[in-house]
Amino acid sequence: MAPLMFFLRFLFFLSPVLFLMISTQSLAVEHWCSNDKGNYTTNSTYHTNLNALLSSFISPSNNGNGYGFYNSSYGENPDQVYAIGLCRGDHTWYACRNCLIQIVQQQPEFCPNQKEAFIVNEECMLRYANRSIYGHMETVPAFPLVYGNDVSSSVDGFIQKLRTLLEDLRGQAAGNGLLRKFAEGNANAPNSTIIYGVAQCTPDLTEQVCSDCLVGALGHIPKCCQVTQGANIINPSCYVRYEIVPFIDPTNIRPLPSPPPPLTVIIIVVPIGVSVVLIVIFFYICLRVRRTKKKLETRKLIPGSDNTDEIGSAESLQFDLATIRVSTDDFSEANKLGQGGFGFVYRGRLLNGEDIAVKRLSTNSGQGDLEFKNEVLLVAKLQHRNLVRLLGFCLEGSERLLVYEFVPNASLDHIIFDPTKRAQLDWERRYKIIVGTARGLLYLHEDSRLRIIHRDLKASNILIDTEMNPKISDFGMARLFVPDQTQGNTSRIVGTYGYMAPEYAMHGHFSVKSDVYSFGVLVLEIVSGEKTSGFRHGENAEDLLSFAWRSWREGTASNLIDPTLKTGSRNEIMRCIHIGLLCVQENVADRPTMASVILMMNSYSLTLPVPSQPAFYLHRSTGLDMSLPSEYNSGATRSDRSKSNSVIVMEYETFTEPHPR
Ligand SMILES: *[C@@H]1O[C@H](CO)[C@@H](O)[C@H](O)[C@H]1NC(C)=O
Ligand SMILES: *[C@@H]1O[C@H](CO)[C@@H](O)[C@H](O)[C@H]1NC(C)=O
Ligand SMILES: *[C@@H]1O[C@H](CO)[C@@H](O)[C@H](O)[C@H]1NC(C)=O
Ligand SMILES: *[C@@H]1O[C@H](CO)[C@@H](O)[C@H](O)[C@H]1NC(C)=O
Ligand SMILES: *[C@@H]1O[C@H](CO)[C@@H](O)[C@H](O)[C@H]1NC(C)=O
To answer: pLDDT for 564-606, tens place per residue?
Structure first.
C-alpha cells in the first residue's frame, strides 16, 4: 500500500491541476471483490505485487496499447498478479488515465484483501486476479446503472429503436479488431428523441466471444431498464450504454491504423529470375482457366468459391441441370447420401474439384418458381461457420435442386448413437458440438437480419466437419420471417418425433422457443449418447426426457452421463444437463432464449434457474410418426441409418384456423 500512496501523493504534490480534476470527478462506482477466490494479507508479496502493477497502469509513461486498453502482470508464481484496464473508446489518454487513477485510488478501500476484483466507474474499468485473465470472458457480475426517468411516450417505438441501435453496435464493436472493440452511434426514436449508444468489449476477446458477451449485457436490458432514458450495463468483459443526451465525443476517437498496403509493391523488387518463373506460372494459369471456362460454360458462375461479391441476383446462384447431372453421375445410387423429408440428397463433384451435396426436392412442394428463387436468395445470405452453406439452386422443368457445401463427416446421429464411433467423441468434442450448435441457432434466431426458426433441429441435421465442428443443415426449409415476427402458426407441421416442442406438435404453434426445446433434447442426447426416442433404461421403457427429469429430481443426474465419457469436467457436463432441462420445460416462457443459453455456458459463476417439469408429450402422440430414414449419412452405409429417427409430417389442410389463439 505504501508505495502506491506515496506515488499518488507524489502526483498530487506535483500537479495541483490534476488533483483538482480528480477530486471533482464523481463518477458512479461499482465494485465486486471475489470472496471465494482467495485472500491476501497486508504487506504480503501478493499485496506488494498488486500495488506495483496498479502503479504501473497509471504511470505517466504507460500508454497501454494506445487505444485505452491496459494488460499486464507482475511478480512470480504463486504471487503473480494479472490485471486488465479498459477505458471508453472515446477517451483521450489523459482522460483515461484520470479515470484509472480514480479507481486505483479507491481500490484499497473497496477490496482491501481479495485476490480477485473488478472495479468500474462509468468510464473505465479495472480487473485483477492471481490467474491469467487475458482473453477470458467474464460476464459476471453485471452492474446495471440506470439513468434518467422512464420514457413517457411511444414506449414501444423507443424500445424497438433502442434494440436495433444496440444490436447494430454489438456487431460493429465485435468486428472492430484487436486494438479496440468499440462502436458508437445514435438513432432517432419517436417524439424527436435521439438515442445515443455505445458498445465495447475488452479487445483481447475474439469477435465471436465479444459478440457473445454483448448478447449477455443486452440480455439484462429488458429486466432492468428498457423503458428508462438511459442505462449502462457493465460486466468485466464488455458493456453497453445508451442515453437520450449525447455523452460521447466522437472527435476524440482515435482512428485505428489502416490495414497494411497491398503486396504489389513487393513484386516489383523480386529478382528477375523469380519474375520469369512467376510469369510462366501466370500464363499457365491463364491457359488453364480459359480451358476450364469452356468446360464450365454451362454453369454460369461458381458461387461460393471465388465469387466474393454480394449475392445480388438469383442468376448468380443458379446452376444448370446438366452440370449437376454430370457432377452427381446422373443422380446415381452410389452418390446417394441419404433422404430427408424433402427428398434425396446426393454427393457431387464439380469440374473445379469442389465437392457439393445436392438436395433433390420432391416435386410436389407447391411453391411457385419466383417464390422458390426468393427463398433461396435469402437462405444463401445466411452464412455462419456453424451453418451448412447453401451455394445455389437449380430450377429446370419439374426439377428443383438445392446445392450445398459438402460436409465430409457423417451427421451427428451416425457418430453419437453408434456404439463404436461414439468413442471418438470425448467430452471436449461433444461440448464443442453443443456450443457450436447453440451459436448457429442463435445466428438463425437473432443475428441474421431474417429471423429463421429451424423447426426440425435434430442430431441427423447436425453435420460434422473434419475438425469436428458442427454445422446445422436443413434450416432453409423453415418458414422465413420478417424481422419482428417471433412466432407463428402453421397448418403444416414438419418436425421429428421426440424433438418437437409440445405446442408445436399439437397446435402447430412454433417460435424460437420451439427450436430451443429441440436444442434441449439434442443436448441431453449428446450428454447421454442415447436417442430421445427408443431410449431404454433398465427394464422400463422410458423416454430420455422423463429419465433425465426423474434423475435430476432424485439427485442422480450423473446416471444420465454416457458411461463412455471417461474424462471431461463433471461440472461442465452437469451444467449442460441442467441447461438441457431448462430448454425442454413445458412452459414456453420458462425456456431460455439461445442468447441466454450461450451466456449460461460461458459463465460458470452464473447461477442457473431451477428447471420445471419437461413436456412429456411423447406419450400422447404415438401413432403419428411414420418412419423415414435420416437426412444425410455420408461415410455411413445406408443400412446403419438410425431406425427410430422418424419424421412427422402432418397436414391440417382442411382446417381454416388450425390453432385457436
Ligand atoms: C489463486 O489463489 C487461490 C487462493 O489462494 C489458489 O487456490 C489458486 O490456486 C491461485 N491461482 C493461481 C493460478 O495461482
Ligand atoms: C476473504 O476475506 C473476506 C473479508 O474480507 C471474507 O468474507 C472471506 O470469507 C475471505 N475468504 C477466504 C477464502 O478466506
Ligand atoms: C505494512 O508495511 C508498512 C510499511 O512497510 C507498515 O507501516 C505497516 O505497519 C505494515 N502493516 C502490517 C499490517 O504489517
Ligand atoms: C497480456 O498480459 C499477459 C501477462 O503479462 C501477457 O502474458 C500477454 O502476452 C499480454 N498480451 C498482450 C497481447 O499484450
Ligand atoms: C414528447 O415528449 C414530451 C416530453 O419529453 C412530452 O411532454 C410530450 O407529451 C411528448 N409528445 C408526444 C406526442 O408523446
So the answer is: 998 888 889 999 999 999 999 999 999 999 999 998 888 777 7
Q: Is the CB of 153 under 6 A from ligand 5?
A: yes
CA separation for the pair 592, 519 (Å, rounded): 11
- CA-42 nearest atom, ligand 3: 13
Give me the residues paired with residue 118 across strands: 32, 127
Residue type, 602: N
Instruction: Say how far apart CA 641 and CA 531 lie, in whole Å.
Output: 13
The answer to whether residues 502 and 605 belong to one domain is yes
Instruction: For a ligand 4 pocket test, name from 65, 72, 179, 205 the mutation site with the most ligand atoms within 8 angstroms of its C-beta.
Output: 72
184 in the same domain as 45: no
Distance of CA 613 from the midpoint of ligand 2 (Å)? 38
| Type of residue at 432 | K
For ligand 2, what atom is nearest to the CA of residue 37?
Answer: 13
β-pairing verdict for 143-150 and 390-396:
unpaired
Query: Does pTM top 0.70 for this prediction?
Result: no
Q: Are residues 535 and 436 in the same domain?
A: yes
Q: Which ligand is nearest to the CA of 73?
A: 4
Same domain, yes or no, for 218 and 88?
no
pLDDT given for residue 482 in this prediction: 31
Sheet holding 193-201, edge to edge: 143-150, 228-234, 238-243, 193-201, 181-189
Which residues are catalytically annotated? 456
In this structure, how many other beta carbons lie within 10 angstroms of the beta carbon of residue 469? Answer: 18
Q: Of all protein residues, whose CA lies closest to atom 4 belonging to ligand 5?
A: 152
Is 265 among the domain residues? no
Burial code of 138-147, b = ≥16 C-beta within 10 A, e = fewer? bbbbbbbbeb
Which cell is 434 given? 453443443
Compute, in angstroms, the gap from residue 425 CA to the centroid of ligand 1: 31
Percent helix, strand and coil across the chain, each rounded to 5?
A: 40, 20, 40
Residue 247 belongs to some domain of the structure: yes
pLDDT tens, position by position, 329-382: 899 988 988 876 677 889 998 887 788 999 888 755 556 777 778 778 878 888
Asked if residue 352 belongs to a domain, the reply is yes
Q: Is residue 473 in a domain? A: yes
pLDDT number for residue 605: 75
